[in-house]
Amino acid sequence: MTNLWTNSLGLAELLPLPEARVLQSTFLLVILVFVVWVLWKIAPRLKRQVDPRVVDVVLLVVSGLVALFIGQSALSLWASAAPNAPTVDVFSQLTSAGLRIVITVGVVAAAYIGSGMLVRAVDRFTTETGGLTSHQSEVFSRLTEVAVYLLAGLLLLSVWQVDVRAFLIGAGFLGIIIGLAANETLSALIAGFTLMFSRPFEIGDWIQVPLENGGETDGIVTDITLFSTRIETFSGKYVVLPNDLVTSNTLVNFGRKGRLRIEVEVGIDYDADPKRGVDVAKRAMKEVDEVLNVPRPNAVLTGFGESAVILELRFWIDRPSSRRRWRATTAVIAAVKHAFDREGIKIPVPQREVAGRDETGGFRVVSDFPDQRDRPDQYEGHDRRNRGDPRDRPD
């Protein structure tokens, strides 16, 4: 190996000099960098024709062999500087430990390629059948990868002759300690699997979840992981909710069916015809663009108010969100108000009747005009008569 490099470079007579060996080592390093650069340069083209994970593993193995060959050459080059130095041959010095390393690399490479193939198979199956959501497919793919690498790890333990029994005993004690220390984390993890299979909501749904302090939060689901659910509120805040909190409380999904019914109350005067008021309100809601035509908007009489008959306006919106709900509600209120005004249907305000009792001597009405505040005729007629007002005496 040494004679090959020295004769090819024409530096056989310069070998005793350190500069020559440095020059040859640099040349070997340049070759290594060039070969690796060429391999990874053609990798994108190969990945379009072959499984990308297979290409990555092959390139890694080839790069490693080239690096090993050039390293052997460099070692031989520098070993020739000492006449009595033994010849260094890496390829002929593979011991049992070296074989185990080779097997370990092969097992890891096989696990890497196999997990990629299984993940793609799972994705293809879920895409064709449509039985799982994108979130469930992702979680199932990750579990598949974990299972493959776990199997590879057990195989490597046997290759390196590790006592599996002692390992399992230690792992058991470690699991107990971790379970006690991370109780909430494990609860959130189990709740994450529950959400994955029960599917109470999906990414993009509008949900409402109670909080630990007694309040509530609602927003659009942006991400679902094994440990937490992230939602974006309509005020622009991002809220991270532990999955155990989500599964242990009553959850409201406003967008599960893709549409939402909204109710708005309005009152009409007792002198107005209730049936006519219902018909006018229905026609007004049908003209609002934000309201769905199917199911049709409706209005029903729900009760008697203090000064009005109560109508409940019921209408539907699609792709529900808080913004769409308030936009539709505002448009419906404006349309119904305009229709009632046009048809002469009065929306009354609360009214009170105030009367004085005779046995208390009546009451005094105070005017807002300064010149009329102390006029005698501000008293009730019976009060003036009780006072003996001359204007109330018969002629």
From TrEMBL:
Residues 370-395 have a biased composition (Basic and acidic residues). The keyword Ion transport does not apply. Keywords: Cell membrane, Membrane, Transmembrane, Transmembrane helix. It comes from Haladaptatus paucihalophilus DX253. One of its GO terms (molecular function) is mechanosensitive monoatomic ion channel activity. The chain crosses the membrane at residues 20-42, 54-79, 99-119, 139-160, 166-191. The keyword Nucleotide-binding does not apply. Residues 353-395 are annotated as: Disordered. Pfam families: MS_channel_2nd (PF00924), MS_channel_3rd (PF21082). It is a multi-pass membrane protein. This is Mechanosensitive ion channel. Residues 185-255 form the Mechanosensitive ion channel MscS domain. One of its GO terms (cellular component) is plasma membrane. Residues 262-347 form the Mechanosensitive ion channel MscS C-terminal domain. InterPro entries: LSM_dom_sf, MS_channel_C, MscS_archaea/bacteria_type, MscS_beta-dom_sf, MscS_channel_2nd, MscS_channel_C_sf, MscS_channel_TM-2. Belongs to the MscS (TC 1.A.23) family. It is found in: Cell membrane.
